[in-house]
Specification:
VC0802-like, homodimer, 4-stranded mixed sheet, 2 domains, alpha/beta, 408 residues
Chain lengths: 408, 408
Amino acid sequence: MKFGGTSVADAACIKRVAARIVDTYRSGHPVVAVVSARGDTTDELIELAREISENPPEREMDMLLSTGERISAALVAMAIHDLGHDAISLTGSQAGILTDTAHMKAKIVDIKPHRVQRALDEDKIVLVAGFQGVSTNQEVTTLGRGGSDTTAVALAAALGADVCEIYTDVDGVYTTDPRMVPQARKISVISYEEMLEMAATGAKVLMLRSVEFGRRFGVAIHVRSSFTDAPGTWIKDEENMEQAIVSGVSYTLDDAKVTIYHVPDRPGVAARVFSALADASVNVDMIIQNVSEGGKSDISFTVGETDLPVVHAVLDGMREELGFDEVSTDTDTAKVSIVGAGMKTHPGVAATMFRVLADNDINIEMISTSSIKISCVIGKAHVQKAVQALHDAFQLERENIQRDEVFG
Amino acid sequence: MKFGGTSVADAACIKRVAARIVDTYRSGHPVVAVVSARGDTTDELIELAREISENPPEREMDMLLSTGERISAALVAMAIHDLGHDAISLTGSQAGILTDTAHMKAKIVDIKPHRVQRALDEDKIVLVAGFQGVSTNQEVTTLGRGGSDTTAVALAAALGADVCEIYTDVDGVYTTDPRMVPQARKISVISYEEMLEMAATGAKVLMLRSVEFGRRFGVAIHVRSSFTDAPGTWIKDEENMEQAIVSGVSYTLDDAKVTIYHVPDRPGVAARVFSALADASVNVDMIIQNVSEGGKSDISFTVGETDLPVVHAVLDGMREELGFDEVSTDTDTAKVSIVGAGMKTHPGVAATMFRVLADNDINIEMISTSSIKISCVIGKAHVQKAVQALHDAFQLERENIQRDEVFG
């Protein structure tokens, strides 16, 4: 069981989480619960660090930030004791979460949950501080944002758990953002691959890395609400699953489109640009290159809005070397995507998407596809209309939709 | 160097501490600095735990409370980095502070400062989270109130440091409380034994345990102000020291006197009472037994005021078994003490103390002595007068006082 920051924000919340854990334990399941830092604790600690240093060393940031989850874990353990059950809190290190040495964005390299297993054998409920581990250098590390989900899924894998339950403030994964489309429907089961594409294209429920971990080790993940007992969304292997053609519509609003005009059209230029951006840790999403006249072409690509200053710095440094004219950026863009495992065998899906957008007078600026996803960059102003229209067109408000009904 | 909670209360304080550490480092001394939790952090965490559980498990309290010092250590390390020097923060466990398994009041059993030494060898400034260690069971432990002083002194001993500097909000150890006696003088050097008696009889500057540690391992302790560069008070071996007859006057206001009336005067009764109190962790200070008529006697003793509820519970449980009449308690008492290594060879000191109190119409209710200390229990209302009169009588406002001047 994994509980996020809002679930452990204050004493009342912590007692509620404890009661929920004890309920599960009493119904006969050994429980390991991973907790995040309370509410805004992590942000407050980051703010404190910034007051002290413009550029604090990452090792020390990890020493600092890892305390938030430890506090939560100890408090939940206390609340469980108060309900008459034996509980023990463990730091990431004590729980055997071994990581690489990349502070603030460490990757789990191994899990040796001896202490967790021993405590379970002693019939204890085990609380684990999420988001952290100990590196191969014996240093405290953190896993980056969303790291507690990864901790939970990785521990579930290492312990051979029946399920990794992720408790959150929404009650599952929806066909699209319910704030945007009232008919959005909670998905009962979705495959890892679809969930990965949904997360990558804007669905905020789960972090990419935790789903990836789940897929790799075959951990069934159940995303559900901290506030109700209703079942949420199961994320599991697609084998034996009836595959929806389209499972969901996702979108992002924080992309920016960058265009470099009149780049000399000779081999290696694109490689030079994008490897320089990669070296600067800029995550480039879509890329389009138009061949223009006179041996020069325009290159457009999308990046996260927050990366724009770095992009400008990198490109400015290459202007003379590459001899391009001008760089323009457009933050008035959005990306809308449809995701569905059934697409693999239904080539008409892309055409339907493009037609739906065209019928709504929405211009498509860029397109990118994978075997189970199609993304279009459009103007930010059209996002609501696009998401609603796509949700309607693929009849996502209905469960178990048949191909013929959509493509009839 | 050890810095208390008020020294690291906010970003400005932390930067000041960092500057101080860097100054020492730049003047050629390798530095290990032990820090406490910021300001009220520990009290806030305790409050949070109480909101969740009436009686939180001590193991979890240690998991919770140990985070405060880790936060401070990481923040000071960041501030030092910002000043251009390499610093690393270590938890108590990483610093090799090994303790017994008594949570919330663990005792240091060994120090294995390999990582501290390695960091020093790499020319780094080392920050250590005070007040905590790791038990022989691999559990996080805390050392109880004042534990950061003990961490500092113990590490200084293990590393063979030249000095353990304790930075605090007062500028040293005074002949008595300067708020009570304006003529109180800062003591430049005092022996471990005297400091132990001063601390045990009410001087609040240093915790007993850290001084005891210093004595056992011969660590020179320098208690000084975080706010000035002025030298403070050195606590070291009494060898070769010119011993003052009386070094200081201390007092406590939180004692209570308990009297049990008409206890049958047969062997083993006192032992029964005081072992029962000891079993209930009540620290009994002074004891007087008066033989009264008819084979019954009265027993009086002093305990900390906060222990009174426990004392009553213990005594009520023994009333029938022991057959005593009545228990009275008096919280209107205080204890005033004079401490001085020179007393050992000057038997007139006690007589002088009693005469001074008598001259001031102060009734002595109980007396206890050690080779370098005399304590008297008096009415709380007379404390100020008593402390002032004793400070005057032994001329403590003057340094290097000669025996003949006092006993002339």
